[in-house]
From TrEMBL, chains A, B:
Family note: Belongs to the isocitrate and isopropylmalate dehydrogenases family.
GO biological process, any: isocitrate metabolic process
This protein's name: Isocitrate/isopropylmalate dehydrogenase family protein
Pfam families on file: Iso_dh
Keyword Transport belongs to the record: no
SUPFAM superfamilies (alphabetical): Isocitrate/Isopropylmalate dehydrogenase-like
Keywords: Oxidoreductase
Amino acid sequence: SPLSLCVIAGDGIGREVVPAACRVLARLRPDIGMIEAEAGWDTFQRVGQALPDATLATARACGAVLFGAVSSPSHRVDGYRSPIVALRRALDTHANLRPVRPLGGIGRPDVDLLIVRENTEDLYIGEERSDGDTAEAIKRITRHASERVGRVAARLAAGRGGRLTIVHKANILPLTDGLFRDSVRAAASGWPALTLDECLVDTAALRLVQHPEHFDVLVAPNLYGDILSDLAAAHAGGLGLAASLNLGEQCAIAEPVHGSAPDIAGRGIANPAATFASLALLLRHHWRDADSASRLDAAIDHVLAQGIRTPDLGGDASCEQVTRAVCDAVLAS
Amino acid sequence: SPLSLCVIAGDGIGREVVPAACRVLARLRPDIGMIEAEAGWDTFQRVGQALPDATLATARACGAVLFGAVSSPSHRVDGYRSPIVALRRALDTHANLRPVRPLGGIGRPDVDLLIVRENTEDLYIGEERSDGDTAEAIKRITRHASERVGRVAARLAAGRGGRLTIVHKANILPLTDGLFRDSVRAAASGWPALTLDECLVDTAALRLVQHPEHFDVLVAPNLYGDILSDLAAAHAGGLGLAASLNLGEQCAIAEPVHGSAPDIAGRGIANPAATFASLALLLRHHWRDADSASRLDAAIDHVLAQGIRTPDLGGDASCEQVTRAVCDAVLAS
Ligand SMILES: CC(C)[C@H](C(=O)O)[C@@H](O)C(=O)O
Ligand SMILES: CC(C)[C@H](C(=O)O)[C@@H](O)C(=O)O
């Protein structure tokens, strides 16, 4: 059956960068069908669900999703839950790949690392309660999820001929983070050639600022992965270039790390590069089309290196100009 | 009654930097008595308690503690709990002050920020359970502790004529981190001149790498404060210079942020500067001796600026040489 992609633009600049990425994909892989679906704050206000059932059904049917960005309410709103977190869990995309490497000569040339973030549990399970004066949240870590993400991280690290660093805080959380560490270690033993080490999350944060070039692949529980991947993105042009892939056994969601940026939405200056790079991750790791992925990566690299850059990168190109240039570069490759 | 300091060297380089700081204090404030007490991994192995009752009693009696660093077992050991975490809770030192600013010309000259970390709850309460395959930890946030740390942060920010940024992840944890945010906001309303804003923890990590100079005072729940303060220390010479003060209503614990560094322990090259700077925080905020605190800060600054630096800062001075130079500079001031 033909491949298809569920396209969720979301809110804000998601509605600019996602259509841009669809144009690029149409050039690269005209065989892939695209089906639009809605999610986000705007959707919630209209239909009362941030991730409507119909969207979830489409995402499941396609298996592959391109997710832009969604706005969230600044204060607690009953019934609202982050649709991307819900989608990650519903599609069981258990590993979130967040590469940090220089693109188009932007960022530190010596940094090439990959953060593999556990994507289904930890404090993200949404189990919280409060009596108004005392609130509690559950941080849940399971052997199953930890081993699973450990296998993904170990396989990718081994594929790079590299080193895997387990991030945890087991000195304070011996049972939960200790289970994460031990499960990843057990999973990684399937790749005996791998160099394995570990690092406390606070130390990892410091080292990622001081010596990001010392890291290769990091694997972390959900929340630490969230924090460290934003931090590390600083070395490679910031969020405008930060790509991610939520990867599961059956499904995958390509998702730029940036948010919906309401302050610049609608002005045509959003940077689509992170979304393009996320699509490249989807092509490589989900559809196993390394050739298209490499062509797309090369096109992004080429366009940025030429100085065709949006204002967040110090350039004066529009989203449209970057998109057209990447489409052209893809066709020429 | 005369002031006294409970001195806990701990393990590893704690046994080098703490005696060094005691010599400096004796020059500055010969009136302050010092009482040694033990804690740490070595203590645990000898007496079965990482924080013996006698140590806790001495700490309580003195009200002021100088804590070096302790080693922790690399794997879970029954009955072992981090003595510094236990001490913070036992003495109810509810705010952990972690300033990041250039010392002796080391680090970014434009950065001068203060992280105020909640110090008694969050995931640090040690409530964990596991059935071997699923482990859970409780993250607890209370209005009481959040307001309390909010008041400290707001007071310090107002004293700097500054801005207070609340760090949280309320988009994922609306009840717990939402309570933290709302409580700090409520507490800060007592300082109406203060500029108040907020930032998601992942975004804060990114901005602290990219634009640390944009921050003034940050207030964060315990774990985020732990991660962000290590991260931010990278801008000011790393852990060798990172000072902290655990501050409560009755008690305070001066504590360098670095660990016990077993790899360099016993070689005489440990950097005592962070411990000196922590002592300065104790003098200023607990004993309210701004004069001695400023003299000590100036002495550290002067010695480092002269190039009398330990190897972690690229110098070749020993702990002894730095200590002697700071003692001399204090006397000359
Ligand atoms: C928007 C938010 C729910 C999300 C997360 O915390 O996972 C984002 O920060 C990310 O990193 O993808
Ligand atoms: C040693 C450890 C328990 C401690 C903490 O996590 O609080 C340390 O990292 C710190 O920042 O003081």
